Amino acid sequence: MLIEDIFKALADPTRLRIARLLGTMELAVGELAQVLGQSQPRVSRHVGILCDVGLAERRREGSWVFLRQAEAGGTTAPIIQAAQALLVIAEGAEPGFAALCDADRKKLAAIRQARESAAEHYFARHATEWDELRALHSPDADVERRLAEALSAAPLGHLLDIGTGTGRMAELFADQAERIVALDRNLEMLRVARAKLQHLPAARIEMVQGDFYDLPFADASFDTVLLHQVLHFAPDPFPALAEAARVIRPGGRIAIVDFASHDHEELRTRHQHARLGFTDRQMAQLLKDAGFIAAAPLALEGGELVVKIWTAKRRPVPATSASAPAKEPA
Questions:
Q1: Are 27 and 64 a contacting pair, CB within 8 Å?
Q2: Pairing of strands 56-61, 64-69
Q3: Sign of torsion over alpha carbons 306, 260, 313, 323
Q4: Segments of 90-196 assigned E as strands
Q5: The CATH homologous superfamily of the domain defined by 129-314
Q6: What is the C-alpha to C-alpha distance for residues 209 and 179, in angstroms, rounded to an integer?
Q7: Which of 98, 100, 171, 217 would you label with 229, given CA atoms 20 to 30 Å apart?
Q8: Buried b / exposed e across 281-292, counting CB within 10 Å, b at 16+?
Q9: Which CATH number is 3-93's, of 1.10.10.10, 2.102.10.10, 3.40.50.720, 3.40.50.2000?
Q10: At residue 88, what are phi and psi to the nearest 5 degrees?
Q11: Using CA atoms, how far apart are residues 248 and 156, in angstroms rounded to an integer?
């Protein structure tokens, strides 16, 4: 790849805006089209040019195509990294470009908020049915047994159940954990979970409203974090895993139960799934980037949708690395 090809690819206002948006998070082509106010075919052409020179990467998921900022590798890595850094500098130094980028991100936030609201309304409508709906997708008894086996090698300690839903996972591990925090962003779900878990000692269980993108806990607060059938609701799963890593003590563990990659498109609209599952390769990269050492995944193939269990251990944080200010406990 010649350096002039990279600069030619960036010599267009739309492609500059796309490059900055992809520097923020992974996006579907349709989402980019909505933000930019352009047709999807036109945006796809711009994306193709960025991908051809290594500034962006495509990932097809069913009928959707997701884009993200390319991970620079090989001999062109320094050039790609420099081009990405130049875009950051340009936004800080050029008021006109900065205003465009800011407006794009505000539009993106509105689109994301609409998606999140749709998911929240879904949960509110189906709060009391959630256990039954989940049973349609996978054999829960087998999943729970295998998950318990996967986590049996070490004490659970203080456990955070992210996206607790009806509280089933908190109930399952109540006897093994020293203390459980069951978190969900939906108040109706928390009410259902509170009713299910009311027999547990108050000192052992805490119900917290919160978002997996912004966990209301101090750094290194938990020994174990669990995301059971939650991550497929995340338009961008990496920030959720990075937040989980932040609140896990070095050497602590994360367990993710979710679907293997599939093509059941109807789950996007019927159940507000932002992701049609994950491949082992995708999950391994997400966990590595978030600061985990992944173990071999487990697969349960008892239904149309294959359920996977991914576990990983939190890498020690280097003593010399500067950490972000700790959040205050809730």
A1: no
A2: antiparallel
A3: negative
A4: 158-162, 179-184
A5: Vaccinia Virus protein VP39 (3.40.50.150)
A6: 17
A7: 217
A8: eebbebbeebbb
A9: 1.10.10.10
A10: -65, -45
A11: 12
Structure tokens at 101: 């980028």
Supply φ then ψ for residue 226, to 5 degrees.
Answer: -125, 130
Under 8 Å CB-to-CB from 301, ≥6 apart: which residues? none
Token pair of 228, please?
Answer: 């059971």
Write out pLDDT tens, residues 58-114. Answer: 877 667 788 888 765 666 678 878 888 888 899 889 999 999 999 998 888 887 777
pTM for the model: 0.70
**How far is 12 from 4, CA to CA, in rounded Å?**
14
Residue keyed to tokens 């945006």 = 43
* Listed residue (88, 23, 30, 78) closest to 50, CA to CA: 23
Sequence-distant (≥ 6) Cβ neighbours of residue 327 within 8 angstroms: 215, 216, 217, 218, 219
Q: Fill in the DSSP letter of residue 82.
A: H
